[in-house]
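Model it.
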Amino acid sequence: MDTVKEITRQAYMCLILRWLLSHPLGWAALTAAFIVAVAFLPVAALGMVMPAESVWEQLPPEVRSLNDDTAIGPAPEYTPPKALRYREIDPLALMVWLERRGSYLAGPEFVAGFIEAGRRHNIDPRLLVAITGAEQSFVPRRNPSAWKIAQNPFNVFGCWCSTSIGFATSARIAAATVARLSQDMPPGYDAIRWLSDPANPRGMYATGVENEGKPRPTSPAWNWIRNVSGFFAQLRRDIPEERLPESAGSRR
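Modeled.
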């Protein structure tokens, strides 16, 4: 997909620029890199100086088409709490954020998958990214099993090691699970904690040892709540939401 390839080129150009600025050769290396970029990446160079369209236009056509209910079927059955609802984000910013952490999920196909699943089920894609952080440490690229883990970094149906359903499918299942578990939340309750709270009548995303109906501070469920909350807060700080174009029809 040309759009995905363009996002990939821009992301790697940003990373190369950061490296060049810290290189001992400094501006000499940067000048050489610029010459190479002009010679071999004219399209990417042009895209960086052209006026920026809405970030919505940077997404692949099949992701943009998800705004059309005829393309995705009926609207989601569940309406998540406001804190968890879909927000438009810059896919390039998310790619760079994951790349800085050495994540295998920094590729454009994964970023597009986070966004597509979030839009389909009205869940903030940054929350889906945070879940992969809690479940699989954002899938470090250095992990010999990174490709396999990336097929199900949300550990839906138990564990990535026992399922291989593909990233796009696992992302959609994770988003649908979050949307379902977010229902029936008591007023004023923490939305992420509710996703793995033993009191949730719809179940728990991460199960673990309970203590009088509440997660123990050292249980898997408690660790999941703490880690997802922390990663989600960091992602919201580092990747602010974008204004969704009126034509996109945000479900807020």
